[in-house]
Structure formats: structure tokens, C-alpha cells
Amino acid sequence: MEELLTLLVVDDDVIDRTAVRRTLQAAGMMMRLEEAEDSASALDILVRGGIDCVLLDYQLPDSDGLSVINAMRARGITTPVIALTGHGDEELVVALMKAGAADYLTKGTPSFDRLAQSVRNAVRVYRAEEQARQAERALRASVDRLRFLAEASRLLSSALDAPAVLNDLARLLVSSGADWCAVDLIQGDEPARRIASAFREGLSSAAIDPVMRLFTLDVAPPVSPLAAIRTARPQIFPPPPGVERVVDQGCPAQFAAAGVAAALSVPMM
After folding, report:
1. pLDDT at residue number 195
2. pTM for the full predicted model
3. Are 108 and 115 in contact (CB under 8 A)?
4. Whole-angstrom Cα distance, residue 178 to residue 174?
């Protein structure tokens, strides 16, 4: 059974929008069709997500197809686009394809009958390319993790001076993408103490002070070092899907006030 696709047709002419619907229905396409009469409405729908392909008229009341495609890409919207126009123009075709259109069809011509096949091809190619991009990102992340582990292993085995090694490890974590990193130590019945820390170059004290106050050693808010030590479990904010939430209702507000988008406290036990 053919997959149900959600399509967005962008055209200010209701007759043309109806023609698109009938053409796709005649080809037996399983679809849910959303409609927009101008570029602003189309972008609002696309920002919400869930659209598999855009059928875009070139001439719109407030813009043109080329500008819409550029606006989509500027917003990070990579949904495939099939451009529709009332007349053929070779230079326009080239410009639209360079901007990222997956295909170009002229209304009212025999080529318009292949609209359904064009949609299917555009979605299939887009999904294949997206899978390839995801695989590339996963491979790059895996390589980065291996490099980090190799460097961390080198640091941990290169010296007997624990504070110096842990300071180097904190700097390594910051260079790997963190804004701030601290290492806290608890020995026996002694109070916890911070033995290493590092933060991103260019980060002002006005930005780092609220974070340091949030992750102090004398209190145990959620996702704090003491919370990780007491539970012997990593404390993550925001919790990833499927992971038990360990933060209380006030935690997001605390983090927002300190300018923290995400945090991780890991027990090294």
C-alpha cells in the first residue's frame, strides 16, 4: 500500500490549487493536501514541520517562487520543492534548480500529468539524501568520540599529578564543545571540593558566575554534582527521550536564569 504523503500546495489561484489536487487524485496518490495562498502563510506552515513536499507556484501575491525557496533554506527548511509556473522559461528553470527545487513543471501542459511521479521521486531522493546525511553525522560523531577517548586516555596515563591531569581533562571537555566543566572530589568524610575547572575562551565572568552558583557543592539541586554522587547515576538536563526525568519543576527556570541550555553531571566512581 502506498504511503500517505502530506503535501503543501502554494498558489493564490483556487482553480490552480484544485487542478493540482485533481491531478494527484487521478494518479492514485495517497495524500493529505494543505494549502497556502501566499509565501507568508506557506512559511508559517513549513516552520511547523510535517510537510513531505511543497508544490510551489512561481508567481505569488507577496513574493515569487525563487524568494520562497531562498527563505526556506535560510530558515533551515530542507523540504523538497516542485516549482509550478504558467509558462516555460529556461533561465527561470536554471535559477530555480540552482536554488534547490527538485523539479519544475509547467501548468496546463502534458508534462503536468507527471506531477504525482515528480512528487514521489522528490520525496524518495530527499529521504535517501537525508539518510546519507544522518549516517555522515553519526560517523563524524563517532570519530570525534574516539579522538576524545584517545586524548583522555593519554592525559590520564601521562602524569601522576591528579589535579593537573583533571584540569587538562576539563579543558579537553571544553574544547570538545562544552562551555564550562568542573571536576569535584569527595574523599571519605571530607567535604566535597572542586579540584579542576575550565570554561570556554571569551566567556565572561558575568556569564559563568550564575552557572558556578547553580553547581555549587554545598547544595544539591537536580542535575548537580552532589545529586549525581548520591544517586550514582548521571544527571541530565533536559532529559533525552525515554530517560527517566530526575529534575523538579523549578529546574528549567533555574537553568534559564543562569543561561544554561543543557547540563550533565557524571559520577566518576
Report:
1. 80
2. 0.58
3. no
4. 4
